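Quick entry, no commentary yet.
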Amino acid sequence: MPTGQSLPKHTPTQLGLTAHTVCTPSVSACVVFPSLQVVVYCKGADSAMLGRCIGFQNLVGSVVNTTSPLLADLDRYSGRGLRTLVVAKREFTLEEFRPLQERLQEAVKSTVDREQRLAAIYEQLEQDLELLGISAVEDRLQEGVPRAMKQLRAAGIRVWVLTGDKMKTAINISLSAGHISKDTIQLVAAEIHDEDRCRDVLSGHLATIRRGHEEAGIDDRSASIATLMSGDHIMNTTMTGGLSTRGYVLVMDGVTAGVALHGCRSLLRELIAHCNEVLCCRLSPLQKALIVEMVKLESRADAELRKTMTPPITLAIGDGANDVSMITTAHVGVGILGKEGRQAARSSDYAFGRFELLARLVLVHGHYSYRRIAMTVQYFFYKNVVFIMPVFLFGFYSLFSAQTLYDSWLMLAWNLVFTSLPILAFGMFEKDVSEKSLDKYPGMHRDVLRNRLLSSFWCTYWQAWAVSRRDSQKRVCLGFFIFLFFCFVEEGVGLLLLLPLLVVFLLFLLLF
């Protein structure tokens, strides 16, 4: 607080508190003093606060070039990786504040456009502020964060950082966390308010990446799709991890993200598909959710991507209330139980106390769960085919009458005992690879990302295996082929059209 300024000595009374939501980028407290003076104290990020402070409206976006000692300290603190906040106030008389208080109470009770009405009143309260000072807090990383980042990257998982910190703070934290390396080429897009300029900047970054790909001999089209999913063509990873020295990271602030999401959405998607990592800073909670939604929904609707690869699955992890919207938007939400409350944990699918456990959740438990579920699905189709094919064969001998092949108790025990208990044990205890191996070699997770066990090849293989396991079922296939042959002959279809089917049938007889 500047020298000479002090709070009134009388005991104040708090009138209300505005919460930090997707519509309000700051937090305010309304306090009334015995002198009938109302003071609104407000704190928030410098990008949201400085433009509302008297004498600082024209300095937003050019903090480094100003001669203000306070702003110089703000830039210095953020360069050291500290999380900064700006504190300001505004004074009202009781007569001036009463109309605003009445409007605020009406907006709170409203059932129509409640958030928009509250945001408009908060915007009116938090104008023409008097700057009081800044705060800087060191937010230390938990142990194991760099190792977890390295494992996720080696597994082919793309990690994005969506934060509300200043750009310098976000870059320093990403470097210390192992999200990006010092050799990574940073493509910065910041303080862009115009849609045309945003399009030019994003197009320039895209051209830079394509030139780098041409020099490295990477096909531009395949890199665009593959990078969106796993980054195989651009990230030079090994089984133990490691980032290519020619990697690219897109660094974008909230102002630019808002413009890009509104007017340059397709160009932004193409650019982030070519980047190894994405770092977005000074984002509001709503912008975090919109970016996750863009990857989640639009990539799934992309016809070209749908034909070539499985659409991406998004996972969002956070520890504060400002991450709730992002966590609920993603396919899988993970909350961290920390000092910032339990809002994120209560809104998530999974919750734990340390970030490093994310690697174990995805690489170990994710691998086991995927294998168990995939094999169980294939098994249920398989056992039904094995059960039905003899019935189908018996139909030729019984002239498709109502006579049954199995006794009733066998039909009941088939699903309740014979085929349920084995797959139940498999689903509970199956571990094809040890936990230590999955933790040591995260590249094994790439088969899970490609959905290999549920691919069309393995589905066809399981059903072919079920059909051709027994001699009786082989005769069914032969009878079915003869039946199709005569049907096609009656319709005048040539024999050449049945040759591929005959070849497949003979292969099944030889292989199984």
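second:
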Amino acid sequence: VVERRVEEEGASLAKEPKSFTDACQEGTVEAVAAWMEDPARPVHPAELEAAARRCGPGQEELWARLVAGAQRRGLYSVALWSLSLLHRSAPAIEEFLLQSHPDFVQSVAVPGTSTVILESSLLHGARKEGPT
């Protein structure tokens, strides 16, 4: 019984990711989010691309937790923020456009400001089906 418990403990320790990239590739959704939310664990900005791969359709909660964690750390990733379009997060879409496409933002902004005058029902979750 003691031998088995030691083996089980050893197996659980072996599953602990050694880096954020490991957590993204092999860890559970909770392990990925927990790593990002723990300020003592390092995250390199380039590793956010691996994290973004885990945030496809149906993974809005993970995506939101990763974006919040990245913001707390002062990190930005085009790959992660571009998913704001998929997950329909207007604040994250705005940040994505401001960071990644500043020329576009200036072309649709109120002159002399960064206030975007672009409005779309897609930003608010409404969809219109078929041709207009």
